[in-house]
Amino acid sequence: MIYDSLVNKQAKMAVIGLGYVGLPIALAFGKKFSVIGFDISKKKIELLKQNIDPGKEMPPEAFAGCDITFTDSQEALKDANFFIVAVPTPVDDHNVPDLSPVKGASEVIGRAVKKGDYVVFESTVYPGCTEEDCVPIVERLSGLKMGKDFKVGYSPERINPGDKEHTLHNVIKIVSGCDAEALDQVAKTYESIVEAGVHRASSIKVAEAAKVIENTQRDLNIALMNELSIIFDRLGINTYEVLEAAGTKWNFLKFSPGLVGGHCIGVDPYYLTYKAAEVGFNSRVILAGRYINDNMPNYLHKKVLQHVIKFNDNVKDSKVLVMGATFKEDVADIRNSKVAHVVKNLLSYNIPVEVVDPNADSDELEHEYGFKLTKEIGKDYAAVILAVAHKEYRDYDDAFFKSITKPEALIADLKGIYRHKIQSRPYFCF
What we know:
- There is one protein chain.
- This protein has 2 domains: 2-212, Rossmann fold (3-Layer(aba) Sandwich); 228-428, NAD(P)-binding Rossmann-like Domain (Rossmann fold, 3-Layer(aba) Sandwich).
- The strands form 3 sheets. Strands 3-2-1-4-5-6 form a 6-stranded parallel beta sheet, sandwiched between helices. A 5-stranded parallel beta sheet has the order 10-9-11-12-13. Strands 7-8 form a two-stranded parallel ribbon.
- 37% of the residues lie in helices and 13% in strands.
- The protein is an alpha/beta fold.
- Helix 14 (398-404) links the parallel strand 11 and strand 12.
- Helix 7 (204-235) crosses helix 10 (285-294).
- It contains 14 helices and 13 strands.
């Protein structure tokens, strides 16, 4: 059995894709098995060889005691017997699932897989994608057949970037397999590193569906909060005070408004609605939530723009400071950051915008979105947008904002962390 071979190190595991999902998996298994960590980025591989995580999620000590070889060589994958795919699954500019990374990984595996090997996908996809889109690629390039020659499983990732409490080790892992034997072996393999245990799904499709609705549910709840925040703003009510009051009831779900970016909550629902349309059902509720959340950057930039125009004769000389550029607090990841939409919208009105962030990489921002970080916070801003609640920003007070802004400047605090602190300037929060 493959699990016993992995334990005895007679077989090797390969993790394909070493981002915020793949790297923790590779390091965890590296403490138990012999692992090949594969990524197409040569720059990333060189850093990983030095025990440096480019995503700043895993500390250097996490690499200690790991039997792992980092490589960008596809040839090295031929030594593996258990493949885990942890590549991104984004959407394109039209919100259509972009399967090119996961299909590319399937091609790589197809050229390396052998009889008796296992292939497990962790990338978030719509129900049916693993067996209908990925497996045929592996079969075509390898000349082998799933079930007969190699086994397939699906175990959706549940990594939450920046979260040090809910980790790979202490969050229940969903596992599934193409047959009973595959399910058993995949389950045993993951049980070796996941202390919380595993949930054995009845099929690969069930496991795929379970993952995609986890983030769809969160997306819809946040969309409700965002819509409520727009309503309460027009009524002159503070949304966070309303939520605090409502939250005193035992069964009130505690969600808050905000920009929904990143590569999960803002993306996964489109995978489900795409598949729904393919089988003849046009989603209404899910897409309504997506519409609200995707339009929150527009709502925010218009609020700031209206304020700047009202209190400044020359808009082109009215600087706006944006604090935070990553997709969420205390991470370095800028993928699908909705802050970038806010910045671009303001720049389109020729408003000078300065962006600061203690975690983001300025060169990455310029490459991805066309703007760089400002090295230091200046003065005389016409508005300040606290877009991401990094820990470095949490202790700022009214005196700080007074020192860097004009008297009529708007402090737009998207996360409400300065509520009851800002007295000397107009204040707004979602």
